Amino acid sequence: EVTEKLEEVVMIWTKQIRQVLVESEQIRREAGDVGPAAELEHWKSRMSSFNSLLDEIRSSRVKKIISILQAARSKTLQQWKKLDSSITIAANEAKDNVRYLYTLDKFFGPLAHASPVMMEHIPSLMNTVCMIYCTSPYYNTSEHMTSLFLKITNQMINTCKTYLCEG
What we know:
Elements: H1 2-25, H2 37-57, H3 60-71, H4 76-113, H5 122-135, H6 142-166
């Protein structure tokens, strides 16, 4: 009877965790003119969410329940282990992406506040983006790179618009 109740609890957690994973994989809706800082903020938020979830999954309360179900040889643990692995991967991806995107952070200010003659920042920025593409185990997909380049371009356009309107 205790095992059944604990299995019900784990099934509820499983459903909630699956929902978090599904939501994290959905396409983001962003304004058409957001800059590259939005990319960093997105991954920081995602990292925070997944780290909180990992902290909860690894809490002593959850560990006790899982160990009781292991002793009872519960079949619900197969799903639980897969989800635990998926959450760990998602958390590692977010952490890694934040780490790499922080290397671009030093360019975001100059890109946003420079005059349209921002050419001195572009080679270093592109070298850093290339480094991310070549070394990041998670961020080096065409989807991520396209999104990043779009945001960098948006920022350059916004900077030029601001310069023209103020000048």
